[in-house]
UniProtKB/TrEMBL annotation:
Coiled coil: none annotated. Its EC number is 7.2.2.8. Keywords: ATP-binding, Cell inner membrane, Cell membrane, Copper, Copper transport, Cytoplasm, Hydrolase, Ion transport, Magnesium, Membrane, Metal-binding, Nucleotide-binding, Phosphoprotein, Repeat, Translocase, Transmembrane, Transmembrane helix, Transport. This is Copper-exporting P-type ATPase. The gene is copA_1. It comes from Salmonella enterica I.
Length: 592
């Protein structure tokens, strides 16, 4: 039986390496398909994981198993219509291996992502860890405990919180996003409220040069700027210090160095002007305030965009009701959704949204399963048929027994798949992470090198040019865009697609979509409205069309079938004759 095995690769550095590994795998007779990138391989076939790893080693590279428990490519409990949308290897939480999600704090750039990801992957029991800078989340596969994962992240210098329940995660993520957005907004306002007036006044008035007449005024401005740096930019300096203790450098390191050097130089000129030549007594207080203000403004805009882009996925969570009607020996009662357990008997009536997956034991109903299968026409369900969380009862009443609840429902698995797709990285994102890992140290080295050249070989006053060059290199090189461009585009794309009922299996699909020249759609209802309409009437034996329509509409009065609705809509407001002794035959129609 075919299965898909995920491998994490080591030692690949270019397209030639990828091609060599792919060819080595596909040469095996027990391999049907090998999808290889620089960091991972997805192999479909009958080969064992050990055999695949050995083949890769013989090709000169390293490989480890990403998912120890590969899932066979067989039909799951998901309806057959949805199998094309939901991947077969969709992870199901077990006692041995499960997926856990962490909410992270303190990350500011792609270097932070690399640091957190390495910290999580070093925890015993972790088979795979995906860190998303845009959402500030981490998706961890394996058997490691949540406490160990949180501790590993905190040791790396960041904050983490484990959220097991999707509803609680959603609430905490919204609370954190709103609080973060408000904090960045106020920090940006305070910093720019100081930086802009000082910059304007210095440019049109005092020229930002310290003299005996304005020395006290500039000293006061310097102290105000220091207060701004502490209040609005304190997180930059704290994060930079944590990074230094961990032997790493991040975007915060660049900001802290740039603004700190500018302020220290300005304060030195302010306090001891006699140490500097007249032309070198230029102050840069406004630079520190403006840099902090603008970067905080950028963080605020990023947080707002992140919150908006996540709303599409959150709408999937709204498809389940907060309560369910449980039937017991004492009667029916409404209980919170979290209290529903497998085996419980539940009731559904017209208009209800199905709370959990289960099997109908009594009654019949029409269910709208469009959110799951894409089928726009409601389906009639009876005893023995399955129902799935999130679908809607259009008409009828049934009793059903719960079979899958919580994170084990089909809807929860779809949500988990979309979340994994949002956390996945296409090849371009993996390249950005590799660059960012060495980006900050290289930038600091370039800044020091540039400053040294201007100090030893530049024109006088060398100290001024040295400061300006070093600060400029440090500030303009902040890798914000490098770390955010890919994850933000993935979140927006995958989230927007989910809003329209399109499920993206992996972010690589979005990157490859740019090369597509043909799109093939599977069935009616994908592109069409999916609402039946009467477009023609054919009569016999001299019966007029209007009369035939009135009689057909009279027969269909009270029916909930989609075709009945189409006939009644065609008949319009005409007064219809009332029928007698009519019976609704299940799955057949109405009979006299």
């Amino acid at each position: 039986m075919s299965q898909t095995i995920d491998l994490t690769l080591d030692g690949l550095s270019c397209g030639h390496c990828v091609k060599r590994v792919k060819e080595s795998l596909e040469q095996r007779p027990d391999v049907e398909l090998a999808d290889v990138t620089v960091t991972e391989a997805h192999v479909t076939g009958t080969a064992s994981a050990d055999a695949l790893i050995e083949t890769i080693k013989q090709a000169g590279y390293g490989a480890t198993l990403s998912h120890p428990k590969a899932k066979p490519l067989t039909e799951s409990s998901i309806p057959s219509e949805a199998l094309a949308a939901v991947p077969h290897e969709l992870p199901v939480a077990t006692a041995d291996e499960e997926s856990q999600q962490l909410l992270l704090s303190g990350m500011s750039c792609a270097s932070c992502v690399t640091r957190v990801q390495h910290a999580l992957q070093s925890v015993p029991g972790v088979t795979q860890a995906r860190v998303n800078l845009a959402e500030r989340t981490a998706l961890v596969m394996g058997s490691a405990s949540a406490a160990d994962l949180v501790q590993a992240v905190e040791k790396a210098g960041y904050g983490a919180e484990a959220i097991e329940d999707d509803i609680k995660r959603r609430e905490r993520q919204q609370e954190t996003a709103i609080a973060t957005m408000k904090r960045f907004r106020w920090q940006a306002i305070v910093a720019l409220a100081v930086g802009i007036p000082v910059m304007v006044w210095g440019m049109i008035g005092d020229n930002m040069m310290v003299t005996g007449d304005n020395r006290s005024l500039w000293l006061a401005i310097g102290l105000i700027t220091l207060a701004v740096m502490v209040f609005a930019g304190g997180h930059f300096y704290r994060n930079a210090w944590k990074s230094l203790l961990n032997g790493t450098a991040t975007m915060d390191t660049l900001v802290a160095l740039g603004t700190g050097v500018a302020w220290l130089y300005s304060m030195s000129v302010n306090l001891w002007p006699q140490w500097f030549p007249m032309e070198a007594r230029h102050l840069y207080y406004e630079a520190s305030a403006m840099i902090i203000g603008l970067i905080n403004l950028g963080h605020m805009l990023e947080a707002r965009a992140r919150q908006r882009s996540s709303k599409a996925l959150e709408k999937l969570l709204d498809l389940t009701p907060p309560t369910a009607r449980v039937v017991t020996e004492d009667g029916e009662k409404s209980v919170p959704l979290a209290d529903v357990q497998p085996g419980m008997l539940l009731r559904l009536t017209t208009g209800d949204r199905v709370p959990v997956d289960g099997e109908i034991t009594q009654g019949e109903a029409w269910l709208d399963e469009a959110m799951l299968t894409g089928e726009p026409i409601p389906q009639q369900k009876g005893e023995g048929d399955s129902v799935h969380a999130g679908t809607v009862v259009q008409d009828g009443s049934v009793l059903f027994r719960a079979s899958a609840v919580g994170s084990h429902t089909t809807l929860s698995r779809i949500i988990r798949m979309v979340r994994q797709a949002q956390s996945s990285k296409p090849e371009i994102g993996q390249l950005a992470d590799k660059i960012s890992a060495v980006f900050v140290p290289v930038v600091v080295a370039i800044a020091l090198f540039s400053a040294a050249i201007w100090y030893f070989f530049g024109p006088a006053p060398q100290i001024v040019y040295t400061l300006v060059i070093a600060t400029t290199v440090l500030i303009i090189a902040c890798p914000c865009a490098l770390g955010l461009a890919t994850p933000m585009s993935i979140i927006s794309g995958v989230g927007r697609a989910a809003e329209f009922g399109v499920l993206v299996r992996d972010a690589d699909a979005l990157q490859r979509a740019s090369t597509l020249d043909t799109l093939v759609f599977d069935k009616t209802g994908t592109l069409t409205e999916g609402k039946p309409q009467v477009v023609a009437i054919k009569t016999f034996n001299g019966v007029e069309e209007a009369q035939a329509l009135r009689l057909a509409a009279a027969l269909e009065q009270g029916s909930s079938h989609p075709l009945a609705h189409a006939i009644l809509e065609k008949a319009g407001d005409d007064k219809l004759p009332q029928g007698e002794r009519f019976q609704n035959a299940a799955r057949t129609g109405r009979q006299r």
